[in-house]
Amino acid sequence: MRVAIFGTGYVGLVTGTCLAEVGHDVVCVDIDQSKVDGLQRGIIPIYEPGLEPMVKANHASGRLAFTTDAAQAIAHGEVIFIAVGTPPDEDGSADLQYVLAVARTIGRHLARPTVVVNKSTVPVGTADKVRTAIAEELAARGQENAFDVVSNPEFLKEGDAVADCMRPDRIVIGASSAHAVTVLRRLYAPFNRNRDRVVEMDVRSAELTKYAANAMLATKISFMNEIANIAERVGADIEQVRQGIGSDPRIGWHFIYPGAGYGGSCFPKDVQALARTAAQHGHQPQLLNAVEAVNAAQKGHLFELIQRHYDRGEDEGVRGKTFAVWGLAFKPNTDDMREAPSRRVLAQLWEAGAKVQVFDPEAMAEARRIFGEREDLVFCDSAFAALHDADALVVITEWKQFRSPDFARMREALGDAVVFDGRNLYDPAEIEAAGLAYYGIGRGR
Ligand code: UGA
C-alpha cells in the first residue's frame, strides 16, 4: 500500500520504517529540511537500536522516501499518518497546533478519498477536530472528498521501538467506518500473521486507551516508589518486597521497579494531560494527581539521601564535593534526556555547591547540548574515568554496563567511599563488604 507519514520523530520514523520493511511504499514528510537531508543520506536523528540499518536498507530499496514536500506525500498516500509532536502547554494540556497544522495541510492538498490515521498521543476528541480542520480546508476549495479519520495510538518504547513495532502486542484501531477498519487491517496484515492483534473500537475509546495504558504504568511506578519510601522508614527492603509481590500474576513483574522517578517524553506528559482532560470534563482525577505528585517528589529523593549522608559529617556537607554520575538518559538504550531524573539530581547537586563528573553510554552529546560547558561539570569517557578523583558515586540510569563494576577498584577511587544507587542495581551486602557505604531506594535494612 502507499503510505504517507507526517513527522519523522520517534513514532513517525519507526512506524514508517517498519511499514516499509514489510513491503509498503512509504513517504515520510517533515518540515525540517536538514533532518530530511540527513535521513536521505542515512543520518538518523535519534539513537534507537536496529533502526539505522533498517532505514538505510529500505531507503536504498526505494520503499522508504523522505521529503519536505507535503503535497507530493498527500498525493502518494492511500493512508496518511499524522505522527507529529504534542508537547505540553503551560497548563499540562497537550498542544495540538502541530497535529491540526498537518490536518489543514492535508485538507489543502487532498484530491481523492483517503484514510487519515492519527498516531500522535492526543486528548479524547482530537480526531473530531482533525476531521473538522480537513473538512474546512476542503470546503474552502469547493471539494467534498470522502475521508476517514482513525485513531491508531502507538505503544512503542524508546530503546525497543523497532521490536515493538515489528511485533506489536496489540494494534488498536479506533474508527467510525467499516471501510477505514478494512484499510487498516490490510495495512497491518503483515504484523498480524500468527494471531489477530487488532482491537477494534470507537475513535474516542482508542484515544483514551493510549492515555489509560501510560497512566496505568506510571501508577505502578509511583505506587512502588511510595512503598519504597515506606520500606526505607520501617526498615524493610523494597527489593525483597518486589520479589514477594511480582510473582502474583495479577500484579506482574513489569513496571514495579522503584527508582529515581519516571521520565521521558511520554509518562510525565501523558499523566498530566489526562488529568487535565479529566478536570476539563468536570472530574477531579485524584489518583492521577497523586501519581504525578509522588513522581515529582521521587525525582528529588536521591539528592535527599545524599544530603542526609553528608549532613551527618563535620564539614560543609555536599558543598565542595565531587560526584561521579553514572547514567544521564531517562532510561537505558536511549540518548533521550527529556524529563530525565538525572537533570533534577544534577541541578540539586550544583545548587548545593558540588561538582559532577558524568558518564552515559549514549547521552553524552545530548548532555553537552543541554548543559553546555560549565566549571562544575566534567564529561568523562568511561564509567571508571568518572570515578577518578570523585568522592562519591551516584547511579541514575540502569545501563547494563553499570551492573557489575569492580567494587574494590571503586572503593580505591572514591574519596568518601559511598555509593548512591538510584536504581537498586547492587547487592548492599556485597558493596558493603568491599568497604563502601551504600544507599539504595527503599532499602532501609
Ligand atoms: C512509554 C510506554 O512504556 C510505552 O508503552 C509507550 O508507547 C510510550 O511511553 C509512549 O507513550 O510513547 P517510554 O517512555 O519509552 O515508553 O519508556 P518506559 O520504558 O515506559 O519508561 C518510562 C520511565 O519509567 C523511565 O524513566 C523508566 O526509568 C521508568 N520506570 C519504568 C521505572 O522507574 N520503573 C519501572 O518499573 C519501569
From TrEMBL:
It is an enzyme of class 1 (oxidoreductase). NAD(+) binds at D30, K35, T86, T121, E158, K269, R338. The active site is at C266 (nucleophile). Its EC number is 1.1.1.22. Substrate binds at F155, L156, K157, E158, K210, F255, I256, Y257, P258, G259, G263, K331. It catalyses: UDP-alpha-D-glucose + 2 NAD(+) + H2O = UDP-alpha-D-glucuronate + 2 NADH + 3 H(+). Pathway: Nucleotide-sugar biosynthesis; UDP-alpha-D-glucuronate biosynthesis; UDP-alpha-D-glucuronate from UDP-alpha-D-glucose: step 1/1. Keywords: NAD, Oxidoreductase. GO terms for biological process: polysaccharide biosynthetic process; UDP-glucuronate biosynthetic process. InterPro entries: 6-PGluconate_DH-like_C_sf, NAD(P)-bd_dom_sf, UDP-Glc/GDP-Man, UDP-Glc/GDP-Man_DH_C, UDP-Glc/GDP-Man_DH_C_sf, UDP-Glc/GDP-Man_DH_dimer, UDP-Glc/GDP-Man_DH_N, UDPglc_DH_bac. One of its GO terms (molecular function) is NAD binding. It comes from the Bacteria. Catalyzes the conversion of UDP-glucose into UDP-glucuronate, one of the precursors of teichuronic acid. Belongs to the UDP-glucose/GDP-mannose dehydrogenase family. This is UDP-glucose 6-dehydrogenase. It comes from Stenotrophomonas terrae.
